[in-house]
Amino acid sequence: MIQQFPANFIWGSATSSYQVEGAWKADGKGPSIWDVFCLIPGKVKNGDTGEIACDHYNRIAADVALMKAMGLKAYRFSIAWSRILPAGRGAVNQQGIDFYNKLINELLAAGIEPWVTLYHWDLPAALEFEIDGWLGNEIAAVFADYAEVCFTHFGDRVKNWITINEAWVVAILGYGHGVFAPGKKSNDLPYVAGHNLLLAHAQAVHLYRTQFQQQQEGCIGITNNCDWREPLTDSNADKDAAQRALEFFLGWFADPVYKGDYPAVMKERLGDRLPSFTEAEKKSLKGSSDFFGLNHYTTMYASDATNNKEEGSVYGNGGLSEDQDVNLSIDADWKLTDMQWAIVPWGCKKLLQWIAERYNNPAVFITENGCAFDDQLVDGKVDDAERIEFFKAYITSIGEAIDLGVPVKGYFIWSLLDNFEWASGYSKKFGIHYVEKETLNRIPKASALWYADVIKNNGL
Ligand code: PNW
Q1: Enclosing H/E stretch for 187
Q2: Whose Cα sits closest to atom 17 in ligand 1?
Q3: Taking burial as the number of CB atoms within 10 A of a residue's CB, which of 24, 50, 137, 269 is the most buried?
Q4: Where does the pLDDT of residue 173 fall: very low under 50, low under 70, confident under 90, or very high at 90 and above?
Q5: How many angstroms is it from 44 CA to the middle of ligand 1?
Q6: Atom 13 (ligand 1) nearest CA
Q7: Phi and psi (nearest 5°) for 344?
Q8: What are the helix and strand counts (H, E) for the chain?
Q9: Which domains does the chain show, CATH number per domain?
Q10: Coil, helix or strand for 260?
Q11: pLDDT at 314
Q12: What is the mean pLDDT of residues 76-87?
C-alpha cells in the first residue's frame, strides 16, 4: 500500500448543476427535463425537487471558501445547459454566462482548478419536446453548438472538460428503467440514446480539438461509470459472464472511445437493436478522450444466467440483464451503504486493472467515488465515521492499483455537499458537508476534516 500519493495527484470533490444550484428559473434560465420530471407525482421521493437544492447559485463565495479551507486542488461541477441556452439552442443567456464566470473566477482566485462537465443530465426541456432529446438525430450537432458556447466563453480559464457524465445512467435509467428523466421504459431505446450520446461526445471533442485546444491548451474527455463484476465461481461460464457484464457496462461507452466501435459481444447479442457507426464516426470516436474519467461506487458478483434468469433490481444492477444473460448478487457479509450499494474496496482496484489492460494504460481520473449514509447532526456535529472508513479503504485500494502501475492521476469525492440525489430526493446523503434543512448552511462532517488532512499530507 502506498501511504504517499504522487505530489501532483489531483485531490478534488464534485457536484452537478441540478443537484446543488437551485435557482431553477432565476435570471433567464430555461426549464430542464429534471425540472419537469420532478413535477410529475411519484417520480421523486417525498415530491422533492431541485428548485432550491443547496442554493449553490447564491452561495458561490461561501462555497468556494469552504473548498479553499479544505485545501481542495480541484472542483468538478457541471454547467446547466438551459442556464446558458434557455431553449437549448439559439439565444445565449448572458446572466447564465455571468454566473459561471463568477464561479470559475472565484475558484481560480482560491487556487482551485475547475473541472467542468458539460452534460450531467439536465437536458433543456425544449430539446426533449422539439427534437426528441437523446433519441433524435439532431442532438449531437446541437450538443456541439452548446459546447462551442462554453469553450468560447470559459475556455480561456477552464482547462479540464468532461463532455458527458455517465452515458450508461442516462441510457439505462432514463430510457430503460424509466426511473430518471425523461422516464422512458424500453428495451431498445437505451441503445439509441447511448449511440447519440457517444456521437455528441465525439462532435464536441472534434470541435474543441480543431478550434480551441491549440490556443486554450486544455484537455477534454468523457466520464463513464462502472461497478466491478466479480465472477461468482471460478467456472469458465461465470468468468465469461463477469467479462460480458463489464463489456455491456463500461465497454459499451469506452470501447467506441478507445477502439472505435462497440464490443463484439454487444453487436452479436443485440443485432439490429444496436445502431452502428459509419466509418467516419468510428474515426471520430477513436482516441476522442484525453483521459479516462471513471465514476465508481460498488461491486457485484456475476454468474452465467443462460439457463436460469433472475429478476434484476432497478438500482445497482447491470443494465438490461436479459440482453447479457448475467445474474448479479452480493455477498451477505458485505456492508451496504444507504443506497444498498455494497462496500467492496478491492473491486475498485480490480476495475482499474481491467481498464489499464483493456484500454492500454490511459491516465485515469476517478471523477466520482462516495457513499450515502443516514448522517445525523448531533450537538452541531456530524460524526460520519463509516464514511471515513469507506474513503480510507477505497483510497488505499486505488493506491495499490497505482503501485501495480495503473496511472491514476486524480480522485474526486462525491460529493462536496449533501444534495438532491435524483429519484431519491434529499433522502440520501452523499456529502462531506451536511446541509442544514432550514438555513441551508453547511456544516463540515468529520469526513470533510479528515479529507482536508489527507490533502495536506498528500496521502493517507
Ligand atoms: C452518479 N446506478 O449517479 C451521478 O453521477 C451523481 O449525480 C449521483 O449523485 C451519484 O452517482 C450517486 O448516485 C449514479 O444505478 C446513479 O448504478 C445510479 C447509478 C450509478 C451512478
Answers
A1: none
A2: 316
A3: 50
A4: very high
A5: 15
A6: 421
A7: -140, 80
A8: 18, 13
A9: 10-457 (3.20.20.80)
A10: coil
A11: 40
A12: 99
